[in-house]
Write a structure and sequence with these properties.
Distance between the termini: 75 Å
Number of helices: 5
CATH architecture: 3-Layer(aba) Sandwich
Radius of gyration: 20 Å
Strand order of the largest sheet: 1-5-4-2-3
Largest sheet: 5 strands, parallel
Shape: globular
Oligomer: single chain
CATH topology: Oxidized Rhodanese, domain 1
Amino acid sequence: MRNIFLTLFFIISLFFCCSKNKKASFKNVSIDKLEVLVNGNNVKLIDVRRPSEFNNGHIENAINFDYYDGSFNENFDDLDKSDPIILYCKSGRRSSKSAIKLVKKGFKHVYNLEGGFENWIFKGKAIQY
């Protein structure tokens, strides 16, 4: 009886151990890493600030998807979920929240710029208008 219990315990433990899915997540990236990633193919650089913030300066080749816009989630529907997505906002809060949403939508390679656009400016990087 004890052997049956131990065998059953082992099988159940093995099942739970092996069936746990690794939680998908996004990665925070430095400015240097962002610059390397942006030079890759099919990378989408998404600025999630308000259009007025975007128009006052943004990173070159960024696309603006306003986090507070009611159609924010739908903006990503036409993007390839296997392509890398790099998100940024003013400081990193909205882009972190956006990254979580994208991971839940099934995007595989989601990155968040550490320190956001404020950090980009602080480091003296070029700005587009």
